[in-house]
Amino acid sequence: MSRYLTGDKAGIAEFIDRFDVFLFDCDGVLWSGDHLFEGTVETLDMLRSKGKQIVFVTNNSTKSRAEYQKKLESMGIPAAVDEVFGSSYSAAIYISRILPLPASRKTVFVLGESGIETELDAESVPHLGGTDPAYNRLMEPKDYTAIASGEALDPSVGVVLAGLDFHMNYLKLAYAFAYLQRGAKFLATNTDLLLPSARSLFPGAGAIAAPLVAMMGGEKPMAFGKPSQAMMDAIEGKFKFDRKKACMVGDRLDTDIRFGIEGGLGGTLCVLTGVTKSQGEWEGEGKEVVPTAWVKELGDLRG
User: Fold this and answer.
1) Active-site residue identified among 20, 45, 121, 143
2) Residues 147-161 pLDDT 10s
């Protein structure tokens, strides 16, 4: 059974004392869009004052680690770039250092924003698509012929990487599908279907990849955001912590809380300020993903 901690000062103190490291999701936990949740800064300051290590683990692929650090600081949250671990960074590391690609097919076709491009650039991975204005236009009749014949395609593309793309269109989708049909690897920064923002929900990165999944007969991309354990392994490898002394804090059962449970962390904490709205979503017989504890909002940890 998940323990309710809001208002339980003794329970909160006991819970916090169990862990040395806290992994935080950001959207829906610390803020929603540009709205910072009350008590967020004070809660993080309190944890740091107790000597807790804090890592910001985000599936948001639109920003690089440096850009995310700037957002944290703009919200009044002190943070170092090395404390940020994002899905774009995780994907870029995998493509550049792990994924076996022929020398002639190392270019990545990006469905996404500048955060992906920045992390690929940092790893010296060539890329197309993304924020290039040449792809941000309507599909024209000549494009059908050029794509179908291969004339418009770059033969060096060996990967299609899908993330959250605020400028998604039919032309980009057509290019991505054509590359996949020609054998490109199908990867995704993450597969979150929903994005919490402005205290509401909007399409997430998973909604960008979903049409390609359908067109490829159900083939799902390899994903690098939560709950992928490839991401957990990379985080552990970078920060060198004892998983049993670490806690994942998030608002999503299917990504954040599952990420912590499947990663063998010592605990998970669910907040109700994002996608998950009530404890009823994990209560009941047969529920596989149940947080160790929960609070209404992060600021409740102040007691």
Assistant:
1) 20
2) 999 999 999 999 999
